[in-house]
Design a protein that fits this description.
Blueprint: H1 4-24, H2 29-44, E1 48-54, E2 58-66, H3 69-78, E3 82-84, H4 90-97, E4 101-103, H5 117-120, E5 125-132, E6 135-143, H6 153-202, H7 212-220, E7 223-225, E8 231-233, H8 236-246, H9 251-258, H10 262-276, H11 281-295
Antiparallel strand pairs: 1-2, 1-6, 2-3, 4-5, 5-6, 7-8
Amino acid sequence: MISSDDELRLAAYKRVREAVDSLTHLGPASEIIDRCAAAAAAAADLDRVVLSRIDNGTLVVACVHTSDQRHGASGGRFASASVRLSYPLVECELLRRRQARLVADIDQSQPARHAFLETLRWREYIAAPIVVDATAVGFLHGDRAPARRPLAALDAETLEHFAAGFALVFERAVLRRRLRDQRREIRRISSWAEARAGELGEGAIELSTDGSEQHEHRAAAPQLLADDGLVTHLTTRELDVLRLMADGKTNGDIARVLFVSEGTVKFHVKNILRKMQASNRADASARYLRLKMNDGSSFASPTLR
């Protein structure tokens, strides 16, 4: 037969699971942080919850949840509060033990012993460190309204379990974001490498002994004199793309003419705009046509390969 204490514990674990699950389905880490305090309040049946991060040895408020307007007023003033983590602060001991604690022996005349005491006037509260990869990164603080049942050891245990679940969800969200950033960087490098490989493979090879390397470098980077007198260097392939741009071709058209991918064309266009300091394709094309007329140069047509 299940005792009443076991029933309370099972009910608490169920609330923790539901609260953590509600965070799991959120998107970026910032959204998880914004919803953390409300989820913690639901998990541990608390009326006020404060999520704070540890920033250079200081607790800085990240999110506040209050269940009524009286508490909400203090929460508004509380948003910019911070507490230095130094003894005799109770939270310093909790950081060392990595455990949640029900703090009931509060002396209102000693605010330095309890985080946020001057703002929230705790009668009793629970503090639970948030640990990610063996490092404490923040805290959850919470209490109940005086008219409700007093806090108990089970409440501290419940908030501690929620803090552990939140840490896992938050860490996963951060790793997902880092993975997306890495993938974008890999795609960018891949596009660059593909473009460079194309330029190297398509360059003309000559049998020469009198400065052929310098000649090849000059051929690969012709100079264009922009309107402001700035000399910029475009590769042979970038010149091909620029000529087709000036003819009004789209990226898809250019890709078909040059037998390259559309992503490679976009990469060349981006480099052309940067090197010519042009604001868009039309600007770059107009400068090219002006240079062509002013210089009287005989720009050859793109080579079909």
